Amino acid sequence: xxxxxxxxxxYGQGGGANLADILERVLDKGVVIAGDIRINLLDIELLxxxxxxxxxxxxxxxxxxxxxxxxxxxxxxxxxxNELARENAExxxxxxxxxxxxxxxxxxxxxxxxxxxxxxxxxAKQSKTxxxxxxxxx
Length: 138
Prior knowledge:
Number of strands: 2
Largest sheet: 2 strands, antiparallel
Helix content: 55-70%
Order of helices and strands: HEEHHHH
Mean pLDDT: 76
Structural class: alpha+beta
Number of helices: 5
Low-confidence stretches: none
């Protein structure tokens, strides 16, 4: 004579389908948990923490207008590429401004040196004049 065993079913066999159904419903509908924590001392607010938790599928979140992960460079490779492209454009613009300022400064310095007679051409003329004077005196 054998007696049927009354052992419980192994963990996860019976409750797995229920858990999957619950998870599917939560992700399909979405769940929002919100709360605020405030710490006051003698009516002086020392700390405020605002907690907002949304549990939903990506499709449901997009449907609700939540898509912050698409623009976060830490989470999206497309956003990372956009961030790098924007930064590259800014750096190129800064380099162009610096180069333009350097070119303008050189032009102004050349103009000043030519006016004061200290330009390259005038120095060569001065050295030739000095050489010819030295030759005449010998």
